[in-house]
Design a protein that fits this description.
Length: 320
Amino acid sequence: MREASFIERNKEKWILIENNLRNKINVDPDVLASDYIELTNDLAYAQTFYPRSKTKDYLNELAILAHQQLYRDQKSSENQFKRFVQQEIPEAIWQLRRPLLYSLLIFCLAIAIGFISAQYDLDFVRLILGDYYVDMSIANIESGNPAGVYQGGSEVGSALAITINNVRVAFLAFVLGVFYSIGTGYILFSNGIMVGAFHHLFFRYGVMQEAMSAIWIHGAIELSVIVIAGGCGLAIGNSILFPKSYTRLESFKRAMKTASKVLVSTIPFFIVAGFLEGFVTRHYQVSIWLCISIIIASFTAIIYFYIIRPYQLARINGWK
């Protein structure tokens, strides 16, 4: 093929690619990769048949630009991930601060109700936890190992099973928000009642301090993250009930996008909670100070990531 024919056949394609590259237009990465392949193919052809032509030099320059653009996009993907973790998630948490607070209040209220109800009705704990679980816990208490329930099974199996169960509860608290927040409220309330009744069982037998040193090794993160997932669910439900100036569908989409970012942020915490419950809680009698240190560190991490850091960034960036 003569060089003139080669140029005539491909010049429109080259002009379009050049405009995209030189004018710094945002191009879909797949399109950019396809253009780069086209350029390298044309460059190889020109190098073979027109090695001393300006066409070859022109295509070589475009290929270099395309390669640089692709490399920049790869670094941009890394930067986008950092931005997602360091900016978008804290901003989403800040936007959901009220539903997260409501979720915490509902959960704490339910714990108080569960504890007080067990105080005035001795059968309440059995109603909530079941006879088998209560009898097993009493037997552990009498044997001097009140949190012995966490020592059953293998460490790896327990960690996996616990993590999966925690994710299931959080997922339910999240998705049931579509039922106008009622489903999320039920998950928060029922789990809070259970926690309150569970703690009263140990309080009644005078082993509250020892039991809490075990329970809250993993519970500090586990229960905190369930509350956070509940806040996400409430945000979704509220977006349907109170769409403000948006349509209900648009309000729901916006809330779902924001809440999903917050929910994604809980995944590492669930993994840590599962690890602690499977591998660490069973050794709670080794050192009370180790237990306290883990509990403090866990609450500190939660408070920093979900309260302090979003507040700091909100003041810096002027988030509303």
